[in-house]
Amino acid sequence: MDAAAPEGLDPADWDGFRTLAHRVVDDLLDRLEHRRDEPVWQVLPDDVRGSFDGPLPREGIGAEAAYAEVLARVVPYSMGNDHARFWGWYMGAGTPVGNLADLVASVLNPNMGGGDHAPVLVEQQVVRWCAEAVGYPTDASGLLVSGASEANLIGLAVARSAVLGPTVRSDGLAGTGRVAVYASTEVHSCHRKSCELLGLGEAALRLVPVRDDYTLDVEALAAMVAADRAAGIRPLAVVATAGTINTGAVDDLDAVADLAEREGLWLHVDGAIGGFLGLSGRADLVRGMARADSLALDLHKWMQAPIDVGLVLVRDEAAHRATFSVVPAYLRHATRGLAAGDVWFNEYGIDLTRGFRALKVWMALLAHGADAHGAVMDRTTALAHRLAALVDAHPDLERLAPVGCDVVCLRYHPRDADSLDEQQLDAVNRELVLLVQESGVAIVTETALRGRLAVRVAIGNHRTRSEDIDLFVDTLERLGPRAVAAVTTDGD
Amino acid sequence: MDAAAPEGLDPADWDGFRTLAHRVVDDLLDRLEHRRDEPVWQVLPDDVRGSFDGPLPREGIGAEAAYAEVLARVVPYSMGNDHARFWGWYMGAGTPVGNLADLVASVLNPNMGGGDHAPVLVEQQVVRWCAEAVGYPTDASGLLVSGASEANLIGLAVARSAVLGPTVRSDGLAGTGRVAVYASTEVHSCHRKSCELLGLGEAALRLVPVRDDYTLDVEALAAMVAADRAAGIRPLAVVATAGTINTGAVDDLDAVADLAEREGLWLHVDGAIGGFLGLSGRADLVRGMARADSLALDLHKWMQAPIDVGLVLVRDEAAHRATFSVVPAYLRHATRGLAAGDVWFNEYGIDLTRGFRALKVWMALLAHGADAHGAVMDRTTALAHRLAALVDAHPDLERLAPVGCDVVCLRYHPRDADSLDEQQLDAVNRELVLLVQESGVAIVTETALRGRLAVRVAIGNHRTRSEDIDLFVDTLERLGPRAVAAVTTDGD
Fewest CB within 10 angstroms: A172, A395, B107, B436, which? Predict the structure, then answer.
């Protein structure tokens, strides 16, 4: 404990640590620069897999040796979504500027629960910038969160409080009658989780049919609202989606907003995928988003920020704060000092301690500008349409849905496959997804569309080039017959 | 879109970016190495504060210029909790190893929702390591989360489902009778937020009186449970705290566990502050934690991980999964490929997309070892007791609570201050906290203890040395009279 002793967990030898840190930077930049020459993903060898079974280390091995373990056992077997041909689920690839910002944020380590310091101003500015980017009022209340799941949860929580009133917070839902939240059958599963967590129950989530283009059928919605009212169920909110998870479909936001207005429903828009289309050439698709009462956005998807960062925007700041604010004595705000500050973010969401995820968004928007982010969207959208055109022109490939945002759903359907029934086609395409993944060429995933298994290509990746799309189609051609063989052999 | 064009948001000039990245590393390590010579915190000058008001930048200024903005406007005015004398609220300081891990995690950018890749194995191992560290069953279910707020929320959500049954998820709480969750009056405010968010309502949180040492009064708890049962209210869970936010008090976990067992209540332990005492010389304090049904821990507090990372552990894996799991077609698990893997973390919590916060914990435990983390706790505990002894020996300082963990609550109470009433003493100490903060010497914060305003010193910082404690006491001596003058002059 004397002054000369090394600090608790700081390096005893700063110069040695500095050398290590520079090596880490070089290794990581080497990786990023040449990543497209590596497989997107590879399965863990058994010995590596087994190496994570050991007990808690009591003695340390030092930073350098620990990093060697990361290099040997973690880096080569990561998920792969920093690669140009990762198109699974829906994720961005991250950016080098975002990575640097994450390092700065980690070292500064501010707690974004609140207080009077520059990182809080950064987050406030990021909230305003994002509102401006998506055409939402810039005086809206906003909070950066872990992603759209949390943003959607918070939006619905505010809706619950705003519609049902303050007794929800004080007395809970035990005395409340049944309520309903509407969303299309294509809505993301996180909304079901939100309804459950909030105590509304899955039954409160009313799934509205979609049209052929996978957008919410507004007439069906109107009928369901009327039927619920007649049955004594209180319509609470409607969730419209700007970019569905399966096909990237954008609901007719203006039509939904008209209905919400007419019916007095809270309008929440889930813009996890397409929320930032306002920066792109297809801003027309999301103009109605400005009418939402609350809005969930993801920055780590099409906006390419490193995971994790999402954003919830709420038009009515008072309603937002009234849903979450608790200020005990040990969190009292001051008029001077560090505990000053107008906005304490912990009053607007679940977390008290909050990371400085704002910095990666701030620095990326400063460095690249909003237009470059819009250009990424235009570029990956064009790539999706290129893929769709190749699929449409190919005798053995079949497209299963319209291209929404930059999502393409297709399947391998060989022209000479009269003998394959729908169930076998599903099995073939499930196998094909696995073969593509195992080939290391690309990561795509599966979904179900009207009962048929689809190979889902969700580009969302600023690193993808035209040549990557071509290579992917070649790979489908190459592996398709193998998938058929695997399934038909299995079936023998 | 041709192959020669620079990637979307990757640098056009990788070498230039590499130079920048190395400079960032040098700047940050310079900062960390010499941080104790700077003020802990300083107020933002008006021109800097005003500089965050501008609109969304459409054109980028490049990475280097963006970093210059970070250096000029963010770094000098951060919160300060990377400094050796930051003892506000309760936070760790972060560690250089954790910072490096955050950079690696940001570049790899894996989505920890699930899948078959090494980062998932890292998180699984971290969960087991932490369980082992705190003496909890290593086959417990666990999930890294943003912090204890979320960990406590998840613990209570599992309790709600486990006790009330699956209809909570399907049908919500509208048909449920009143329930009660018990915790001491010293419990963290996040538990109230959890009760509200889960639809139980604030009224469901029954605050049990504490004893003189600020630990939960178990006899009073027993009486409250009996009274609630008699009133037809269903006791659901009891929350015991291992390290309260105000004074670091550790509830008598075994006594609470005995009662929970007797009464059939879910036992949740909030170990945000003291949860890892099992690694320290005071492991005896938390032995009863092993009996909890669920347990919330923070890694970014006494364990010093960079913000954000907490952990929830649940004894019954099936109950944990049954609370959150939803697996739609687009998240279907596979038996091979990237979508294989036994555990999909998104089935155990709120988030689908999840960051790789596991790496900073894994790398720190590997590099330093668990014992070094325990030694940090012993060291800051000793520093807290040193401060307490200095306060007790000082004629103008008064201690307001027993030292719990490494938290000291005190006030300035000048020996010649017969003329100051309690209200004035509160005002003096509130002013003193501000003066200390503004001096740049240390960050401490205030709380209220039995109606008296306390200067709260929550060390929790691996960088703090004995000399820092001495400097702090000197500073209280120096600024105390100024605080008195400010208050008594105001009062004139």
Answer: A395
Taking the Cβ of residue A338 and every Cβ of chain B, the question of whether any pair is shorter than 8 Å is answered with: yes
Query: Which residues, 6+ apart, have CB-to-CB distance to A386 below 8 Å?
Result: A466, A469
Is pLDDT of A2 > 90? no
Q: Is the pLDDT of residue B228 over 80?
A: yes
Residue A1 has pLDDT above 60, yes or no: no
Question: With bands split at pLDDT 50, 70 and 90, how would you rate the model's confidence at A6?
Answer: low
Instruction: Find, among A253, A295, A262, A305, the residue nearest to A462 by Cα.
Output: A305
Report phi then psi at A308, rounded to 5.
-120, 145
Determine the Cα–Cα distance for residues A74 and A87; give it in Å rounded to an integer.
21
Q: Which of B171, B197, B206, B246 to substitute to test the interface with A, most A CBs within 10 Å?
A: B197
Q: Which CATH class is domain A100-368?
A: alpha beta
Average pLDDT over residues B374-381: 98
Asked if the Cβ–Cβ distance from B203 to A67 is below 8 Å, we say no
User: Could you tell me if B100 lies within 8 Å of chain A, comparing CB atoms?
Assistant: yes
Distance CA A89, CA B334 (A): 14
Find, in chain B, the residue whose alpha carbon is nearest to that of A356: B307
What 8-state DSSP symbol labels residue B250?
B
Reported CATH class of domain B372-491: alpha beta
- Chain A residue with the nearest C-alpha to that of B23: A22
Contact present, A443 and A437 (Cβ < 8 Å) = yes
Taking an 8 Å cut-off on Cβ atoms, the answer to whether A61 and B95 are in contact is no
Separation between Cα atoms, residue B193 and residue B267, nearest integer Å: 18
Residue B254 φ/ψ region, left for φ over 0, alpha for ψ in the -120 to 50 degree band, beta for the rest: alpha
Q: Which residues contact A419 (CB under 8 A, 6 or more apart)?
A: none
Q: Indicate yes or no: CB of A44 within 8 angstroms of CB of B332.
A: no
Q: State the pLDDT at residue B341.
A: 87
Minimal CA separation from A178 to chain B, in Å: 7
Do B267 and B256 form a contact (C-beta atoms < 8 A)?
Answer: yes
Query: Which residues of A185-244 form beta strands (DSSP E)?
Result: 205-208, 234-241
The answer to whether A364 faces chain B, any CB pair under 8 Å, is yes
Give the A window 49-78 contacts with B, CB below 8 Å.
49, 52-63, 65-67, 69-70, 73-78
Q: Does B258 touch chain A (CB under 8 A)?
A: no
Helix (H, G, I), strand (E, B) or coil at B419: coil
Q: What is the mean predicted confidence (pLDDT) over A297-318?
A: 98
Domain ranges (residues) in chain A: 14-79, 100-368, 372-491
Cα A443 from Cα A438, distance rounded (Å): 9
State the complex-level ipTM.
Answer: 0.97
Select the residue from A47, A74, A347 to test the B interface by mutation, using most B Cβ atoms within 10 A: A74
Interchain proximity B70–A97, CB inside 8 Å: no
8 Å CB contact of A57 and B33: no
H or E stretch including A90? Answer: none
Query: Following DSSP, what letter does each residue of B100-140 receive, concatenated?
Result: HHHHHHHHH---TTS-SSHHHHHHHHHHHHHHHHHT--TTS
CB-CB contact of A93 with A82 (8 Å) = yes
Report chain A's C-alpha Rg in angstroms: 25
Mean pLDDT across B354-382: 98
pLDDT score, position B490: 62
| Mean pLDDT computed over B64-82 | 98
Q: How many CA atoms lie within 13 A of B4 on its CB side?
A: 0
Interface contact flag, B58 A369, Cβ < 8 Å: yes
List C-alpha distances in Å: B303 to A248, B112, B126, B133, B377: 42, 22, 13, 11, 8
Contact B295, B268 (CB under 8 A): yes
Query: Which of A139, A145, A307 to probe the B interface (max B CBs under 10 A)?
Result: A307
- Looking at chain B, the number of H-run helices and the number of E-run strands are 15, 11
